[in-house]
Amino acid sequence: MKRVILGMGVMLALTVAAFGDVTIKQTTSGKGMGMAASGTTTTYIKGMKMRSEVEARGTVMTTIFDVENQKMYSFDSKKKSADVWDMQAFSAEMSKSIDPGEIKASVKANGKKKEVAGKSAAGYDLEVSVPASMGGDKSMAMTVTLSGPMWVVKGAPGTAEYMAFYKAAVEKGWIFSDPRAAKGSPGQAKAMAEMHRQLASTGGVPYETVMDVAISGEGPMAAVMARMGAMSMTSTVQSVDTSALDDALFAPPAGYKLVPKK
């Protein structure tokens, strides 16, 4: 469950050379399965690379997304090793559990306005529905639905960088959570990825997002997940900075042991 909550915080293409860098700091909170967690998330984007640092309960979980080279690196502040995922192979494995053609998504302006982090944000209502099964087993079928309001600041610093990264990553079939958690909940992982694509389509940066996660279906896995209770997450941007970022941020620290994962 800890990985799910951290991953949900994580959560949260044009010519790359035309863009600069962006750093987004936000607070995150999540609850579900009888647990609650909160923390801070810092997201760094440089071209087709992103680094996400989620701090919760005294641990900093870092995930590096290298879309260009199809690699994901994951490590925490208490270890000197990094897990390495081949995302091209992982995306192919995920596709066995999800039919992209069955994903339903809508993002609609609701006409509301709100000030977030000192900026005027426009309100949107988002809903994503993803049918999924465990390893393609139809008896393990379920539907994952994400829904909730979000507040988007258009023309904010870092908008072009944010939109370009997520557009390119989602087109390559990427997910934005811990792959180990994604294997257990492929529908949720794919729904989160689609949510990011929909957020980018608004033409702005989501400064506040409240997202409820519901799982339904008639199979045994859906029944088990339903008994665990609904999950939800909230993320709110505190600051955005467009200062240049060091390339070293987008690779595991020197001396870390790299551990290939499947």
What is the fourth-level CATH superfamily?
Answer: Lipoprotein localisation LolA/LolB/LppX
And the CATH topology? outer membrane lipoprotein receptor (LolB), chain A
Helix content: 10-25%
Q: Proportion of β residues?
A: over 45%
- What CATH architecture would you give? Clam
The biggest beta sheet reads: 12 strands, mixed
The number of helical segments is: 6
Number of domains: 1
Please, what is the average pLDDT?
78
Helix/strand order? HEEEEEEHEEEHHHEHEE
Could you give the order of strands across the largest sheet? 7-8-9-10-11-1-2-3-4-5-6-12
Number of strand segments: 12
**Uncertain parts:** 1-19
Jot down its keywords:
alpha+beta; single chain; outer membrane lipoprotein receptor (LolB), chain A; 49% strand; twelve-stranded mixed β-sheet; 6 helices; 262 residues; 12 strands; globular; disordered N terminus
Any overview of this molecule?
There is one protein chain. With 262 residues, this protein is α+β, with helices and mostly antiparallel strands. Helices cover 23% and strands 49% of the residues. It has helices at residues 2-10, 87-94, 159-171, 179-184, 186-200, 220-228, and strands at 21-32, 35-46, 49-56, 59-66, 71-76, 81-86, 104-116, 119-134, 137-154, 204-216, 231-241, 257-261. The protein has a twelve-stranded mixed beta sheet with strand order 7-8-9-10-11-1-2-3-4-5-6-12. β4 and β5 form a beta hairpin. α3 (159-171) packs antiparallel against α5 (186-200). The model is unreliable at 1-19 (pLDDT under 50).
